[in-house]
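Page 47, continued from p. 46.
Same chain as before, 439 aa.
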Amino acid sequence: MSAGQQASSAVQPDESKPTIRLRLRLPVLWLAVLLLGAVLLPDRVWTTLLIGFGGLFLVAFVWVWLLSRGLYASRRLRFGWVAVGDRLQEVFRLVNTSDVPALWIEIVDESNVPGYQAAVVRSLGSKQSDQWRESAVCLRRGLFHLGPWEIRSGDPFGIFTVTRRYPQQQEIIIHPPIRGDLTLPLPQGQSSGRTRARQHSWQANINAASLREYHPADPYIWIHWPTSARRGELFVRQFDLDAAGEIWILLDLEAAKQLGEGKAEGTEEQAILLAASLAARALNSTRGVGLVAHGSRPWIVQPGFGQGQQWKILRALALMTADGDVPLAAALRDLSHIARRGAAAVIITPSDETSWLPELTTLARSGVFSNVILLDRPSFGGEGSSLTVREAVQMLGFNADIFHQGDIDAGLDEEERQGFWEFKVTSLGKAVAVKRPGQ
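Result:
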């Protein structure tokens, strides 16, 4: 492949045309003075200086012009989904197909990912390319963007600069981490007998609702042999969801109840971390999981199964903030309207009040049994007692657990951030894990 073909393959389709700008105005003034002197005071000295300086000016412009036609860049995100504590990593590539070297190339990046800075300065010879990685540990959940960005270079004399801008942005969601060491129990739900849902399950359970034709991806254990023998072709059982297994996770995002605003160890981040971990555990147990919360906008994720549902929940958790004004009692009342009879709920709240307990009993009368997780306010630096609330909840017949600050890790510790693991393929084709030093 020729150098020109390599450059064209590196060009991103929405890049802008290169722009050449005059970096220093003083050389233009000198050139004007020399030209005026050569005209008004004809002399060999003025002519020699004018030719020499004019030639320098021309060489600088041609140098930058060649770079504008042959200098390209590209960037590629290695992993699109990352969590707090994971390492965000991008691969950058520079290609110079021109006949002159780029003595300096500045990468100007306008990404807004906290703690990530891809701005560097590199050099590149003629007909050469360079590739490197930029990485950083993700420090905060949320929706961010990589780019827009641009590359800048110039002539050796510093007279002109050339800029090629890449205006596209790539959105990236940093979701909360999932901790598998939680000991908090999941509610089992309370339904009278087996209740069938209207949706079909992607995994086998005790509710075999109907039969359908066999698909190549179906497990052999699903085959219904009597029907297959009678009809002369394979048929499999189709299963319905068990409504008693659904779990709703309700987050109390009332701003007035939060402690440690904006901190990883505050009630907002700890509640979201709990929700992400409990949802992952429930989904791994083949249970349907939904999510409801009321911040500045309502967040409702209908119950579902599988990896796709986990991404939906993690996306919602990554974007929500505890800036709402809806009290927990109203949130419970809304949940009673959307949750099916036989479902269960996990309620996570930092509240030290008991005014919402009547709505908890109303939710139970509608057929939704709840577990309550109380964020211990004194451990988060606030006032009030979670013990009193737990006793009141237990007196009503519900399970209640108290969660203290520090019971779950909010991210990687400093020692773990000093390096990261990646897979390397050996000459024998075997993939091995190699620890790289942190950057």
